[in-house]
Structure formats: C-alpha cells, structure tokens
Fold these 3 entries.
Entry 1:
Amino acid sequence: MWLVKTVRVKAFEPTRVKKQFMALLLENSRLMNEYLSLMQAHQTTSKQHLHLLSYERLTQALKLPAAVVQTARDKAVQIYRSHLAMKKDGPDCKLPCFRMTTPVRLDRRCFNIIETKNKLTYVAAMSVKGGRVHVPLLGQRYQYRQLRKIVAGELKLGSVELVKRGKDFYFHLAIKKETPDIDPDYSYTPVGVDLGLINLSTSVILKGGRPCNILFQRGGNALEMRKRFATFRASLSRAGKFRRIRETTGKERRCMRDINHKISKSILAQANQTEKPIIVMERLTYIRERIHRGKKLNAMLHSWAFAQLQEFIAYKAAWAGIPVMYINPKYTSQQCNKCGFTSKANRLGRSFKCGDCGYELNADLNAAINIAKAYKNFAPGYRSGALGARDSALTLQARA
C-alpha cells in the first residue's frame, strides 16, 4: 500500500528567480483557463482529445516546457470533472476561473531535488519559461529529514506544486512511501485512545491485561482558547464586522490543528515504546447526533475537531507502520474495566466508581482501558460480544 503526504519547503532568496516564477504562474493560469474553455466548448474531458486540439499551438505560443503544459492540462481536467460533478447537485455552479497566483503543478520531468555541499544542502532544479533554474530549499529539521530520504531513495517524490504566499514562494512536495498491508492478530499490544474535552485524549498501553504508560493530554488551554474566540466573535457579530469573524475563525482552526498535530505525535511516540503496537479508537460516526449536554456544551462539542484528531493519529500511525482499529463506542465510559459491570450511575463526572465492585478510577482512563481491552475481546471478523453488539464488523485498517 502506498501512502502519500505533503511536505512544504520554502524557496530561499527567490528574488533572483522571482520574474521567472511570476511568469510561470501567469502563463500556467492562462493555460488552465484555455483548457477549461476548450473542455466546455467541445464537451470533453479526454486528455488525448485536448492534446490533439491544442498541444502544439499552446507550446509554441507560450514557450513553456512540455511537461508544464501537460501537468496544467491534467490539473484542469481534474478541476473540470469536479465542476461537472458539483453541477449535478447545483445547476447554478459556475465554471472556475484561475487567477495569476494559481499554483503550478510540476512532475519529475521538470522538477528534481539535488544534494549539494553548500550551507543550504538541498537545491530544487526546475524548468521555467526560458530555461532551467536552481533554487536553494529552506526548512526545519523535519523538512530536511524528508529531503534527505527523497535523495537517498527511501521516499518517492510525486507531484510538486509551486505556491506563492505573500512575497514568498513555497514548494509543496507530495512524498510517497510503500508500507506492507498488516493483518493484526493477538500478538499485538493494544494502545487504547479515548477522546474528550477536559482531557483531549487519554491513552494507555495494555500489557498482559495490565494498563501502563498512561498519557493524559489536558484540554484546559484549548477550552479557554475556544471560549475567548467565541466571546470575541460574538462581540464582532454585534458590531457587524463579519470579515473579521471569518479571519478569527481561520486563526482558531489553525490553533486547533496545531494542538491536534501535537497530541497525535505524542500518542505515536507513546505507541512506539512497545513492541507490535496497535492503536484502538472509538468509531465516532454520528457522534454529534448522540451528544445532548445543554446548549453551551453542545455548541462546544459539535465544533470540536474529534475527527481531525483521529485522522492525524491514523495517518501518522500508517506512516509508521502501526495498524489502527475502530470499535463501537457503546458502553466504553459506563463499563467497569475490572468486573465488567455496566451502568450509567458508574460515571460520576470526571470520576468512575463501579456500583458493583466499588472500583474507583479516572473516568477517561477507565474508558481508554475498555477501548484497549476491546481489541483482545474480539476475534478478527467476530460481530458481537463485550461492549455490546455492533452493527458492523470491526474496522481494522491503516489510513493514508
């Protein structure tokens, strides 16, 4: 199975190539708009048909590398097909128009990464209008580590996009990695992950039936941040400053994304502390329909990025070769992990006290242990058992 992720690196000191980059962006947008017009006029999305209609004329008129013309055509075809699909749902859907800052897609024919002995070790060699240029790449340790693996052949470089953001230019590198398909068995060690608000995540490793390596990810700062943004947006709404509301919403989303990245990274580091780990999480389908906690708390829960956090954990796990399992969330927070007694009365806010055996524990930790135990309780393909009957088989997968 091939996994793909994107790494962003900055073009260092682009002043000397700024004219070439701007010319490439401009000609690329003109080219894609031309292809959209052709597809609309001839009612076709066939790449071969478009090639016969326009390839020679456009390459001669724009003086662009052949690979850039072909990648622009392919990208325009993808966007036009998406437009046609959206038009079926909404007939008023307008044909997109590309601006001069539309990112340019490049492939291995017109883009390559070279390792040098200079202070800035990695250089992008790329084709532009009028020739080929070499641009030093600037990044942090993570980016340099990925570039080193690309040059060494450990990772495969896919398509690349040249993106202009403000005064700077960036390369978005799609890197690929092949991982073997994993069929987990009982020899794997489960890492149960419970998501919440007070503790954004509670994770625990279950070794020999005993919990160890417990990790709480506190959510106090995130909650306070969300409340501040909500109060600020309310004041802006009363003042009629709707543009500022959109700006603050984007900032809040970026903050939550950063928090979720850090949490998922910590959970993967925790999982890597044991041999043959498998991460076990709740299936959160229809979670918003199941939440009824009052107006204010409902608004907070419904806007929480649970799915995004799970996606980050899943793709990081897949990249590391760790399988991920999803279970039915029914009764995970109500069942005693010691005796199995299940009751709503067991859950007392943030605490858990079993009404049968009297066992006491943090409620989130109890749920995480139950989630981890669910892996041991189910044989592969088994459709019912502990933690309640399920409407479908367990999802055993490593997401890309």
Entry 2:
Amino acid sequence: MTRTNKFKHVLSVLHISGSSVVVFEDSESEIKTAISAGIPSKNILRVVKNV
C-alpha cells in the first residue's frame, strides 16, 4: 500500500505553493514529509506535546 503525502495532497487540492503555508507538527517523520512536499523548513513549527 502506497502512503500519500498529506502535505502534497493539500497543496495540490488548494492550488497553493509550499512557501505560502505554515505547518505545526510534532512528529519528526511528518516534518520530513512536509519538507519533501516543498514546504520550507522555516515554515514548519515543531509542536511539543504536554502529557
């Protein structure tokens, strides 16, 4: 089963570029996925979970 890049999907559906979004993410793997979708690392904010 092929996993879809959720960031690429949303950028495509909304017809916007990765440089025009801000991502809030807590998972390192999802941060890497966002970067691979063309979202600049400066637009990705790492969120720390309080447990």
Entry 3:
Amino acid sequence: MIPYLRAVSSDLRGLARLAVEGTVGVTDLVESMHQGIRHPLTGGKARQAVGGRGISGLVYGTIRALTRTVGLGVEAALAPVDPPEGGAIPSPQREALLAALNGVLGDHLVATANPLATPMSLHHEGQPLVLETAALRTAIPKPGTRLLVLIHGLCRNDRQWSQNGQDHGAALARDLGCTVLYLRYNTGLHISTNGKALAELLETLLAQWPEPGARLDILAHSMGGLVARSACHQAQAGGQAWPAALRHLIFLGTPHHGSPLERWGHWFERGLEASPFASPLARLGKVRSAGITDLRYGNLLDEDWQGLDPHTEAEDRRQPVPLPAGVRCCAVAGTAGEDADSWKGRLWGDGLVSVDSALGRHPDPQHDLAFPPEQTWIGQGLGHLDLLTRPEVYEQIRGWLEEAGSLGEAGGISPSRVSGTPSLKRTTSPVKYELGITVYHHLSLVNQSFWNR
C-alpha cells in the first residue's frame, strides 16, 4: 500500500500545482477582460497587465495570493510521501492521461519541475531499460544484433503502439526476429530538444549493447518521425557513432512540413487578438506546448524557433534538413477519402496530416524530401491512428524491413501501392498538380502576410 500511496501523492502534487497555476491564470484572464470593459477606448490593452489598481485590483490580487498559499500548503503536506525515483505505479489509464498532459503542457511541466513531466526512456516488454551492458543483458537475455526502435507521436506513449490487437513492434519481433525497443518521451518539448536527447540516448544504447556490431532500424509515427530526423541530423553534425548503424527509417503519417490544424489554430488565435474585447481569450490559445507549435511547419532544429515567439511568428523559417544520407527512408501516408489525388485527399490526408506533408513533398526544392517512389505508400480509407492498426500498413513496413541492407544495397525494391494500386501515379497531369501546389503555397503566404500586418 505504501508504494501506491507514494505514487498517488506524487500525482496529486503535480495536479495540485497545475490547479494552482490554472486558477491564477483564469484570474489573470478575468481581470484583463474586466479592464478591457472598463477602458473600451483603448480596448483595455493599456491595462491588460495584471495587478490593476483600486478595489478590483486588490480583489484579484487577494485571490491569486490565497490560491498560491493553498497550493504551497498542499505540496508541503504531500512532500513527506514522495515516491523514490521510478516509484510510480504504471497503469494504462494513468500513463495515457500523463501522455496527453505532457503533449499539451509538457514544456511547462519541465520548466516548473512538475513531477508529472515524463522523462525520455527506452522500454522493452513494458519495462524501462537501464542502458548499461550488464543491465541490458539481464533485461534482454537474447539481445540479438538487429534493433528496432519505435517512436510514438504527440500525446501518446510507448504502450499505445498496441491497438485493437495489433502491435507493429511485437509483430516485427515475431516475424523478423529483431529486438524491439519502445521510446517514451515528453511530446510537449521542442522537437529539437527531444531530438538531441534521443541522439544521446541512442549513442549510449549502441555503445552499451551486449552484442557488438548491432544494426538499427527506426519506425516512427507522426511527431516521432520529426524527432527521429532531428536526432539523425544532430548526431551526424556532432560526430556521433550510432547513425552509421542505422539502416531503415520508416515514417507513418509524419508531418514533415507541418499540420494544417496547428496553422489554422494559430490564425484563429491571431484573430482573437485583433478584437479589443476578445484579445484576453487569445491567452487560452497559447496554452499549447512547444511541441505542438513546432508542428505548424515541422521545426527540427533549435535555429527554427530560437529568438521567435511561436504565438506571433506566422512564417515558415525552417532550415532545410534533408533525409539522412546512407539510410533507406520510407514514408507511409493515409487518406480518409477514396481518392488520394483529390484536393480533399491532399489537404486533409489522414485527418491530421496531409498526403503531401506525410510524403515530404514541398514546392521549394530545398525542403522537398524527394522520397524515391518505391519507398512511399498511400493507404486509402486510413485515418491517422489507423496507421497503427491496419494489417496492410504492417505488411508494407515488414516488406521494407525484409529487404536487405541500407539505401544502395537493397537491390530490387517492391513497388509501393495505394491499397493495391500504384501510389504515386497521379490522376491529374504534372502541370496541374504543380500549379495546384503553387497556388496553395501562395495562398498560405497571403494568409501569413495578412496576420503579420
């Protein structure tokens, strides 16, 4: 019972801290709206800083002070039964909730040292691994020389690769005999931050792996693919050894050029800020993590976001990052519609990521990832999470991994398919396709220019 109470106390401390911060934030929001109503000629903008004067300022200040005092008392009461490192009791429901919370507020949890923040770790058969040779040999009695690392997406965790009786990792371990490891990480941190941490983790893993000469494959879903690309780029720039062991990098629904939902959310936030009375509500739109704002265009590097305000910056300022050299990179896209080449299919894709973004297509040649056609596949009638469960997706992944060697050594590669038909054969002419992409790109620039005025 004591370990259980310790785990609960840690969660309660973290939740209590968030509750205090949320209450103070709502108080600030209400005070700003109050000031906006009292000073309509200026839209309240001159008085939106919290802590106004007069009776109302005193009332709001008292609420904030009392809330913080109560929060400190709760933390002090729970501190004596804090769990030891790694002492929390895992459960699917708790971990799913923590994964979602980290996805939305993960950067804030780390900045405030909240115990609910998820550290990065590798797991095997549901257990976290200690990356030391002796510990790895104990945890994995038959380690093998072929490693497969699975990287989940936003607001997810390592356990959620198993859906509806399908787990791509477990199936690949059974069919290909590889040793499967699952990454768990805080998806609310910047992608470049997670990329750097992953690069260091894989460097340690390969150095400590019990079997010398191990080769590495990576299977990544959604945001996980961006983290993997960031890790590869930073590792190669830093002279790390593990990229030389990487053979395959397979992306499932990865938003290589961002997600339209994040861009539309950003524009909605800017619209609220334009109204003098609704502008305080724009703060609610800012309650989203650095990881989420990185998905606007698919930021991979520190240079893509440092020195910029993610809630005001509307332009794509990414540094071009090509696919890692010498690695066989493959991409899977889903489209919920019947026709992947229709405007609906290209724009909505799997419901979260467009087909063009998932396949790395971009009108700017510097950003176009140029996947070879035989290393792409589009699944019709597949939503974003269907990519984790559908047998036809698994068969495509297995087919790529079964082919020997890395890029340039793979020999004959079976053609990609769209539910049994060639995936990259366009029903529209190349001229119409390129014209459509160009128009879409320029419309995005018009929107950006409007909001930057």
